[in-house]
Specification:
The protein is mainly beta and about 1250 residues long. It is about 10% helix and about 45% strand. The chain has 8 helices and 92 strands. Strands 43, 44, 45, 47, 48 and 49 form a 6-stranded antiparallel beta sheet that branches. It has a 5-stranded mixed beta sheet with strand order 10-17-16-12-13, with no helix packed on it. Strands 20, 21, 23, 24 and 25 form a 5-stranded antiparallel beta sheet that branches. Helix 1 runs antiparallel to helix 2. The protein is extended, with a radius of gyration of 50 Å.
Length: about 1250
């Protein structure tokens, strides 16, 4: 069609140009016989010809282009984006429109994609709108539900209720996470105290790092006590978090002195006085506060002067004697009979100025109102009475009056006279008789304490004194009552009723006391306004009583009546959300969910869970639907097959339904057909100790194609990566519990469990919460007891119980169903489980857990029906050579019996055997005077205590018996020898420490007369000399020193002269050193040395050299511990710990892998120069091939890859790194296993192999 249109246009233009209108032609013969043609053209024709030539040229160009179009090979070109779609950042649920421009011939077709999937507008009607026009294309994404521009603000690692002390520096911090994170749009961080915005000052500093907000109290005072709130503002939206801060009193300089006053401020300032107010402290030091001293200091100086000579009891005081126009700061000190408190925090500066002058300084311009008043007054008119006279400050000694000027007054202005009279009389007296007052405010002093006064004011000018104003009246203050209610385990909410007649209240002090103790402690050091306060820092389970007293300028009121006693216990609240929600099984129309119990159950047992679900279509979630009306456990029914769902779970207790959990990730409802089992669930860590714990779990809901045959338990440290997961058990276990041993004390661990069946190992369970291996203080174990009747019982005690705590006994970590075999008795914090008829059916692991505690639990294993023993049968020698056989039981009742058996024959008490049984201590013993040849054999003690029995045997045969017999005979002979004169210490020698090194030969004799004959025979004197020389050399050894060598380091000591008989031993960290090619010892001349080549960090520690001279051991020590080892040596080996070849980590100790899988291990190495890397298998170099791939990249990363492992690949592997400064190795074991039910594939022997028998 396009070609037809262009052809028709071309023919029309050609016909148009073919017409000859407006042209005439003539021919003229020239002299040269040539014809010359002349044309006559009009102006119109000339212009038309010019236009036609231009049109013709254009036509030719169009024709050429037309012919080019007829040749499609020259016209075709691929689509090209002239304008590409750009990225957009929009609010969630907001509409967005994408644009692009595309060229190409033929005209290209455009398809929009989302996540590599074409968008179909018919599948989502109304959501997507696609338009294409003139090569411009657009995609509009609509959301019928609209959009919201709300930021999500979360507080992490927030500050809790804090307790500080005066003078300390306190810091409150909180990490803020804001989503979405928009660049150049920063939040506004605001801090509030008791609802008042805090501004930075020398006492308070605020900091925002972009992620964490911090408020620092540089010098905490009681004024800083209150409720602190962090508010994060993002546009019109904000979130906030609050916590209370308590500030305790600082220690008084004098014992018994009161605490410092607080909130010192200036209430009224005039040119000759300033009224100071403050709040009384909550702590009086044990004796009543007698009054207060007020100090002043001129701004710019450091000199403080006391304003009052005697203490004032009222919490307000007028300071006089000020210099007009100067600024002052003030502080207050409390005093009692023990002494004076530390000063309060200073007040804000205040200037001594007349209020009228201060107003003129603030604003020098006249207002319209003042001009009207100025022109409306008439000179010579007596002013009228002032209006609105009232008392703004009232104390026992003075009052402050305030009023409004009269409407009618003279042109020159008015002044005021103040009058007073005692209430109930009309005897008015003028207060300011000499000088009238200019400002409409005045302080009246010198009032009699305890009397009530009335006041009035008169105006005066040049025309006279006006009529008095209306007189004032008096006021009183009264206290209220108190009611406590439960809050948390350590706090109580206290409320009270404010008296209706209360006037000018500053606040309230709350005190708490344990019921019956009579000792009261203040709960707040800063008076709290309002009638509600939360008392923190209480002891859980204790009964407390409370009282309140009000405080105003006149002082502290009487205490309110004491409240009723209330136990500190958490109030019942809704539980927190469950977490770690996962799918345990999925079928066509239902799914089984699993989750972890809420961390906060709200003080009441959880009665059930509510589950909500919603469909997710193309990533867009729908509306939430309730899966259950009543609380359910796990399975969710009536779901659609192949539909994607999200879930949320809420826990419920007696207080109600808690907050739902966040939506889970999307799960597809489809029939599971995998052969391996699903993940186990409900993992629980109990009996946590410093080196072990017991892990419990429930079997998987989905078992796969075959029944579950066992479980694997995996463990790793919390901070370690997923590569460090290792299996605790090499073979699967059938039990649903396992005691994990070998943990490191203080280390945090994570655990998970995998189920296995004939098809293989299934998906691992969710990990447990982090568990720290530690034995908490006060941890107790289950103990076994046997009463006088022979009844065996298990006993457990707990001192951390609450009112709702219960003892829960179980057997093999399953609930005990047959309660007829056990009798349970619980009294207070003790529980007892007694066996009624102990038999083989009662063998197993018995555990006891205490609910509503922090994991208090213990267990005891009963292997057989036996009397528990503290120690097995053993033999020992007595002083006279007698042999004592003994054992000790945990406890024996009075009816316990013991049979003594020798070589299967019972022996009785007599001359040869003397037997004894102590029922109180459980000690059983048998004593034989002498061991003879026929006493060789087996000795057995058989115990019977009620229905419980046990026995223990000791075998004395062969060399064991002969050794014991010889020792008994020697002991007997020694005893007889010592009955008369004998050598206590045999002949010996010692070298004195004098200059001559004298050798003394001595012995010690026992049980001898004062004088007895003796003789000394001189033999082997050379040996004595040698020993003396050795002793002298040992004493002359110098202290150990260290020296650097080309190979490493050398420890050495010098002696005067060395003999071979001197024995030298070296120890490292109290262990004898094993000498190798790297560690050698020797003697050079008089130098005794220890050479350590290529030292490593493991060589740090304490070194000890022992010199034994035949009698005495002499030692020399050198400590090479710490981070600055060998710091004093500047030799060539200083590079040992920096440039030596090292393995930085990454390799496990044991690798267990299934046959046929691929094994890939990587580790990091270091060294300067770059070390050489060698892989080893069974201590032989490993050669790389297609099966074993070895890589070494950039001199830092060494990798080991083995494709398709087989059982022949099992063995001991290692890596060796080496450079000129040293070497280092790291070993690991590879274990290849074959899944059950599969045949072991043996490698086919080659033709050259021969069978060997």
């Amino acid at each position: 069609e396009e070609r037809i249109k262009e052809s028709a246009a071309y023919i029309a233009r050609r016909n148009l140009f073919a017409t000859g209108e407006g042209i005439s032609a003539t021919r003229v013969a020239t002299s040269s016989s040539t014809e010359e043609q002349h044309e006559k053209k009009s102006r119109k024709v000339a212009i038309r010809e010019s236009a036609e030539r231009l049109a013709l040229r254009k036509t030719l160009e169009e024709t050429e282009e037309f012919h080019r179009k007829l040749n499609e090979d020259k016209l075709l070109h691929a689509p090209e984006f002239v304008i590409k779609p750009r990225s957009h950042t929009v609010w969630e649920k907001q509409n967005v429109k994408l644009h692009c421009t595309v060229t190409g011939w033929p005209e290209p077709r455009l398809t929009w994609y989302k996540n590599h999937v074409p968008i179909n507008v018919h599948t989502h009607p109304g959501k997507y709108i696609i338009e294409s026009r003139y090569g411009m294309h657009s995609l509009e994404i609509n959301n019928p539900h609209g959009y919201a521009s709300k930021f999500e603000i979360h507080f992490v690692d927030q500050f809790e209720v804090s307790f500080g002390r005066e003078g300390e520096t306190m810091s409150l911090g909180c990490t803020v996470i804001i989503h979405p994170d928009i660049k150049r749009f920063h939040p506004e961080i605001q801090w509030y105290k008791n609802g008042v915005l805090i501004t930075p000052s020398k006492w308070v500093q605020m900091h925002w790092s972009g992620e964490r907000a911090t408020l620092t109290l540089a010098h905490a005072n009681k004024e800083d006590e209150g409720l602190y709130t962090l508010r994060v503002v993002m546009g019109d939206y904000y979130e906030q978090y609050s916590a209370y801060v308590f500030v305790r009193d600082a220690d008084a300089e004098m014992p018994g002195a009161p605490a410092s006053p607080l909130d010192v401020e200036c209430l009224d300032a005039n040119k000759d006085y300033v009224i100071i107010s403050w709040k009384q402290p909550a702590v009086d030091g044990g004796s009543p506060v007698l009054g207060y001293f007020i100090d002043k200091c001129e701004v710019g100086t450091t000199h403080w002067s006391q304003c009052n000579e005697t203490p004032v009891k009222f919490a307000r005081f007028p300071v006089t004697g000020l210099i007009e126009g100067r600024s002052y700061i003030f502080r207050v000190r409390a005093v009692n009979k023990a002494g004076i408190s530390i000063p309060s925090r200073v007040s804000e500066p205040v200037a001594a100025l007349d209020p009228a002058d201060r107003a003129r300084l603030r604003s020098k311009s006249f207002s319209i109102y003042s001009l009207r008043q100025l022109f409306s007054t008439r000179e010579g008119v007596v002013p009228g009475p002032p209006s609105d006279l009232h008392v703004i400050e009232a104390t026992k000694n003075y009052v402050v009056l305030s009023w409004k000027p009269p409407g009618e007054r003279g042109h020159e202005g008015v002044m005021y006279f103040v009058e007073k009279c005692i209430a109930g009389t009309e005897n008015w007296q003028r207060v300011n008789t000499e000088i009238p007052v200019k400002s409409p405010r005045f302080a009246v002093f010198d009032l009699a304490e305890g009397k009530s006064y009335r006041f009035r004011v008169r105006c005066c000018n040049s025309a006279g004194i006006g009529e008095p104003s209306e007189a004032t009246e008096a006021t009183v203050v009264a206290p209220g009552r108190i009611i406590p209610t439960r809050n948390t385990d350590t706090s109580v909410v206290v409320t009270w009723t404010e008296s209706k007649d209360a006037k000018e209240l500053v606040g309230y002090y709350v005190e708490a006391s344990i019921a019956g103790s009579g000792h009261w402690e203040p709960s707040n050091n800063n008076p709290v306004k309002g009638t509600r306060f939360i008392c923190h820092g209480l002891h859980t389970g204790e009964n407390y009583i409370f009282r309140v007293r009000a405080v105003n300028a006149a002082g502290l009121s009487e205490y309110s009546q004491e409240s009723e006693a209330i136990e500190v216990k958490a109030a019942i609240a809704a539980p927190s959300p469950p977490y770690d929600i996962t799918v345990l099984e999925s079928v066509r129309d239902s799914m089984v969910l699993g989750w972890k119990q809420p961390k906060i159950i709200g003080g009441a047992e959880i009665t059930g869970y509510y589950v909500n679900y919603r469909e997710v279509i193309d990533g867009v979630p729908g509306k939430w639907n309730e899966a259950n009306i009543k609380p359910v456990s796990e399975r969710i029914h009536n779901l659609k097959e192949n539909m994607v769902y999200q879930f949320q779970v809420a826990a419920a207790n007696l207080a109600g339904v808690g907050t739902p959990s966040p939506p889970t990730r999307s799960f597809k409802c489809e029939e599971w057909t995998i052969a391996v089992p699903g993940p186990p669930h409900d993992l629980l860590c109990t009996e946590v100790r410093k080196d072990s714990l017991v892990l419990l779990w429930k079997p998987p809901v989905y078992i796969g194609r075959n029944p579950v045959t066992g479980y694997y338990v995996d463990v790793k440290e919390t901070e370690a990566t997923d590569e460090h997961w290792r299996s605790v058990n090499e073979k699967p276990i059938a039990n649903k519990f396992l005691k994990v041993s070998g943990l490191k004390e203080g280390v945090s661990y994570l655990f998970r469990v995998r189920a296995t069946n004939q098809a293989g190992v299934g998906k691992p369970s969710d990990t447990t919460d982090p568990v720290i291996a530690e034995t908490r203080p006060g941890t107790k174990e289950v103990e076994v007891d046997v009463d006088d009747n022979g009844v065996i019982s298990l006993n457990f005690e707990c001192d951390q119980m609450s009112l709702d705590s219960k003892f829960v006994w179980s057997k093999n970590y399953e609930p005990i169903e047959d309660e007829f075999r056990l009798a349970f008795d619980t009294k207070g914090g003790k529980s007892k489980a007694a066996f009624k008829d102990l038999g083989e059916d009662d063998l197993g692991i018995y555990s006891c857990a205490v609910t509503e505690t922090d994991g208090v639990s213990s267990s005891y294993t009963i292997d057989e029906e036996a009397v528990p023993l503290k120690s097995e049968l053993a033999a020992e020698l007595l002083e006279k050579g007698q042999v004592r056989f003994w054992l000790q039981a945990e406890k024996l009742s009075g009816n316990a019996k013991v049979n003594f058996v020798f070589n299967d024959k019972e022996v009785a008490n007599g001359e040869k055997y003397k037997m004894k049984v102590d029922h109180n201590t459980g000690l059983v013993e048998m004593i034989m005077d002498k061991l003879e040849a026929n006493d060789e054999g087996t000795y057995t003690f058989q115990l019977q205590d009620g229905k419980a029995t046990n026995q223990s045997s000791l075998v004395l045969i062969g060399d064991v018996f002969k050794k014991l017999q010889n020792e008994a005979d020697f002991q007997r002979q020694e005893w007889f020898r010592k009955q008369g004169p004998h050598f206590v210490e045999y002949l010996g020698w010692e070298v004195t420490a004098d200059f001559f090194n004298t050798v003394q030969i001595v012995c010690k004799v026992g049980k001898s007369a004062k004088r007895f004959p003796f003789s000394f025979l001189q033999r082997r004197l050379d040996t004595v000399r040698i020993c003396a020389v050795l002793s002298t050399n040992s004493l002359s050894a110098t202290e150990l020193k260290i020296q650097s060598t080309a190979e490493g380091i050398r420890l050495f000591s010098f002696v005067n002269y060395y003999l071979e008989d001197l024995r030298v031993s070296w120890l490292h960290n109290d262990a004898k050193i094993k000498y190798t090619d790297r560690v050698k010892t020797g003697v050079t001349g008089e130098q005794i040395w220890l050479q350590i080549n290529e030292p490593t960090p493991q060589d740090k520690g304490k070194y000890l050299m022992e010199l034994f001279d035949g009698k005495t051991t002499h030692t020399r020590k050198l400590d090479l511990s710490g981070q600055v080892i060998f710091a004093d040596i500047k030799g060539n080996f200083t590079h040992v710990f920096s440039d030596r070849a090292r393995i930085l980590g990454g390799l496990p100790d044991v690798v267990t892998i299934q046959e046929g899988k691929a094994l890939n291990l990587t580790c990091n190495v270091w060294g300067d120069p770059v070390p050489e890397v060698t892989w080893l298998k069974n201590e032989k170099p490993l050669i790389a091939d297609a099966h074993c791939i070895l890589k070494y990249e950039s001199g830092k990363s060494a990798s080991f890859t083995m494709t398709g492992v087989n059982t022949i690949d099992s063995g001991r592997y290692g890596i060796l790194v080496k450079n000129k400064y040293g070497t280092e190795t790291s070993d690991f074991t590879v274990s290849v296993f074959i899944p059950e039910g599969e045949e072991v594939s043996q490698p086919e022997p080659s033709k050259g192999d021969k069978k060997k028998v």
